[in-house]
Amino acid sequence: MEFNVKGTILPVLEAVLQPGETVVSTHGDLGWMTPTVTLSQTTQMGSGGGRGFLKAAKRVVGGAGLFLTRYSAATEPGTVVFASKLPGNIINVEVTPERSYYVHRTGFLCGTEGIEASVSMQQKKLTGGFFGGMGFFLQHLTGEGVAWLELSGEMFTYDLPPGQTLRVHPGHVGAFDQTVTFTVGTIPGLANKFFGGNGFFLADLTGPGRIWLQSMSIAMLAAEIAEYLPDQGGGGNTSSGGTGLVDGIIGGVFRD
């Protein structure tokens, strides 16, 4: 199996499959493919056994789809291309039984068979998952194989030594090693919370381990363009009424 990242601002991932090879994706990122590639649906990646449905249910709770799509080359080589959703970067990580990764909710693009992608709320407190914005429901990549991730905007990588903490707006967290401790906390000070314009929450990432940060998120992009979107009546979004379209977009991406 051969992977190639092509393009610049809006990159795509091209996977060249040999007969018998399969790549799996959790959501509809298909761009194009050759006729020799076949599609099938499954609720699990790899050998999930009886836990496959439970993992699928967890994906639904986190906002992902119930089914996974398998792209396979049966008797002839084939090519399948996955398109990014926003301008940004496509990177790969090697997942092993000893090294797993947490990725932002829509960041897992595809992976080889053997990768398990489940939704995990790494912070144990339920309030962190529901009110931390993107933080939150994370995708947890385990198993063994290669996983491809999509990070939006510019990408910034930090290798945190043990004990070092970086406080990050939840929307900018792209991915991090399993060795990184992740917690969601509130921004200190009432004035900062209500008048600072940065929201109520920050994610604390503490080493050791590598973290990948993104300069853009779907939620932030939607918030910036919301005032320019038409209301349900077809006009501009200039009044307090008729904001159903905007509310739908903001509500749908709040968890990213």
Question: In terms of topology, how is this protein built?
Answer:
Elements: E1 2-6, E2 12-17, E3 22-25, E4 30-33, E5 37-42, H1 52-61, E6 68-73, E7 78-83, E8 88-95, E9 101-103, E10 108-112, E11 115-120, H2 126-131, E12 138-143, E13 145-152, E14 155-160, E15 165-168, E16 173-177, E17 181-186, H3 190-195, E18 201-206, E19 209-214, H4 218-225, H5 244-253
Antiparallel strand pairs: 1-2, 2-7, 3-6, 3-10, 4-7, 5-6, 8-13, 9-12, 9-16, 10-13, 11-12, 14-19, 15-18, 16-19, 17-18
Helix pairs in contact: 4-5
Concise synopsis of the structure shown:
The chain has 256 residues and is of the alpha+beta class. It is built from five helices and 19 strands.
Describe the structure.
By secondary structure, this protein is an alpha+beta fold. It has a single domain, classed as Mitochondrial biogenesis AIM24 (Double-stranded beta-helix, 4-Layer Sandwich), CATH 3.60.160. The protein has five helices and 19 strands. The strands form four sheets. The chain has a six-stranded antiparallel beta sheet, with no helix packed on it. A hairpin with a 5-residue loop joins strand 1 and strand 2. The longest helix is centred in the N-terminal third of the chain and has 10 residues. The chain starts with a strand and ends with a helix.
